[in-house]
Amino acid sequence: MEVKKPSESFTAMNELVLPNDTNTFGNLMGGRLMYWMDIAAGIAAGKHCNAPSMTASVDNLSFKNPIKLGNVVHIEAKVCRAFNTSMEIHLKVWGEDLLHQYKYESNEAFFTFVALDPNGKPRQVPSLTPETDEEKLLYDGALRRRQIRLILAGKMKPNDAIELKAFLNAK
Ligand SMILES: CC(C)(COP(=O)(O)OP(=O)(O)OC[C@H]1O[C@@H](n2cnc3c(N)ncnc32)[C@H](O)[C@@H]1OP(=O)(O)O)[C@@H](O)C(=O)NCCC(=O)NCCS
């Protein structure tokens, strides 16, 4: 099976916050941002596996700073680990005020996508080899994050999450 690098799935997306994207405070609605993040994650997953893929889960999203009406949204997405049929995608989001020329962090999240065959069944994805220090850190943590997700989804018994248990016991 082919081996890919995280940089091969790198996806950058920009959006402008328009009035129809905002809540009553004049900030970007969280749901709209999640929609754009899902698209960016889906593109990154597609670049990695070159097959149709579907959102399986979204990790907790906490919004550090609201993105204001008229500001630009920057979303960066990259596959940080490939398992058997699933891929974990790391996303970073910033807002940018073009008038006052500054950028600010909005949030960070992990999405999991599953590649599907023509019958809609999960299919194997290429494996992934991290290159940079940041990519290696994300790659190592992905196994534990996957175990947390599968436990929460009722698809793994906590006792089977060996790497997660070892990590928690070491802390
Ligand atoms: C995601 C989906 C394809 C998984 O199918 P499934 O029959 O549960 O398949 P499996 O249990 O064999 O799991 C397939 C892969 O999905 C992963 N997976 C399943 N549920 C998961 C979850 N809640 N979180 C993270 N990964 C999950 C499994 O770990 C497995 O990955 P691996 O092969 O790399 O080990 C299926 O649940 C589905 O179609 N869900 C609806 C997705 C959807 O509609 N998304 C759009 C948003 S509404």
TrEMBL record:
UniProt cross-references to InterPro entries, sorted A to Z: Cytosol_ACT, HOTDOG_ACOT, HotDog_dom_sf, Thioestr_dom
Gene Ontology, cellular component aspect: cytoplasm
Superkingdom, natural source: Bacteria
Keyword set, alphabetical order: Hydrolase
GO molecular function: long-chain fatty acyl-CoA hydrolase activity
SUPFAM superfamilies tied to this protein: Thioesterase/thiol ester dehydrase-isomerase (SSF54637)
GO biological process: acyl-CoA metabolic process
Domain HotDog ACOT-type: 7-119
Family: Belongs to the acyl coenzyme A hydrolase family.
The protein's name: Acyl-CoA hydrolase
Organism: Hydrobacter penzbergensis
High-level lineage: Bacteria, Pseudomonadati, Bacteroidota, Chitinophagia, Chitinophagales
